[in-house]
Specification:
Blueprint (H helix, E strand, L loop, with lengths): L1 E4 L11 E3 L2 H5 L16 E3 L4 E5 L1 H28 L8 E7 L1 H15 L2 H6 L1 H8 L11 E10 L3 E10 L4 E10 L2 E7 L4 H6 L2 E2 L13 E6 L2 E4 L10 H24 L2
Parallel strand pairs: 6-12
Antiparallel strand pairs: 1-4, 2-3, 5-11, 6-9, 6-10, 7-8, 8-9
């Protein structure tokens, strides 16, 4: 296996980084705020975020086929963020001279790297899509792929997980990758409520409308979402998280008070 940067090294991923595993985050104390990791040791990566996730041949092929096109897309995204006073939910972003099919194939490649090997076994159509550089088409009833501009304190590499919304009896199965300046969500068996809830931008059309050598100017409506907690699909601001914590603590306090009064 060869070392695979996720995202690619030249896409602002060549600096010293400290990462925290899921087990460490679960054991984190309940006193500090979610973006405060001073109580955790973490693991320092000197070469940028990544790991030994792809064989050398696969790493070299996907990098040469898709890497530079994705890096250009990231650079344009970063420039848009820097030049915009404020990215609103409806603001349009214009990208010039990009290769949409190459971009989405690089994104799918990164999702292979942040998931377990079983992910490739289950989703053989995604394997074929990535390793056949000219292949088009992904089923939008089977997959959803969404993009957002990233703000906040925490980057996310979250493998496939299930989220249950008890009030709506709804289960979502997602994987999320978020490193400055972009975040991506891959949803399995996508539900339309996701795009409605976050007004998020669906880019699965990159796989279905364009050829490998097709260079296009494209316009996307990409929202700016915050990542201040390690949970997937949680885009609350720090202020919202703080208020929710106070409400939860007050609710527990009242509950304990009522329990004592009943004795």
């Amino acid at each position: 296996m060869s070392y695979e940067h996720v995202p690619p090294e030249k896409a602002f991923n060549n600096y010293r980084t400290k990462i925290y595993k899921g087990t460490q985050l679960i054991e984190k104390d309940d006193i500090s705020m979610p973006w405060d990791f001073r109580s955790l040791k973490g693991n320092v990566l000197q070469r940028g975020v990544g790991g030994y996730t792809l064989c050398e041949n696969c790493n070299n092929n996907t990098g040469s086929w898709y890497g530079s096109s994705y890096i250009d897309f990231v650079f344009q995204s970063f420039k848009i963020l820097n030049n915009s006073k404020r990215i609103s939910e409806k603001e349009e972003s214009n990208f010039f001279g990009v290769y949409p099919l190459r971009i989405i194939k690089q994104i799918i490649t990164m999702f292979f790297s942040i998931n377990s090997p079983e992910f490739a076994v289950v989703h053989k159509d995604l394997v074929e899509f990535v390793f056949n550089k000219t292949k088009r088409y992904l089923d939008n009833n089977k997959y959803g792929l969404y993009i957002y501009y990233l703000s906040g304190e925490i980057f996310r590499h979250i493998g496939t997980c299930s989220i249950l919304k008890i009030d709506k009896h709804l289960i979502r199965v997602v994987s999320e990758l978020a490193t400055m300046p972009l975040g991506f969500v891959l949803e399995l068996d996508p539900k339309p409520e996701f795009k409605t809830a976050y007004n998020i931008c669906d880019i699965l059309s990159f796989a279905n409308l364009y050829d490998y050598d097709e260079k296009k100017d494209i316009r996307l409506e990409i929202p700016l979402l915050e990542s201040n907690i390690h949970l997937p699909l949680d885009y609350r601001t720090k202020e919202q998280i703080f208020k929710d914590r106070l409400k939860s603590e007050l609710k527990n306090l009242l509950k304990r008070k009522n329990e004592k009064s009943n004795y």
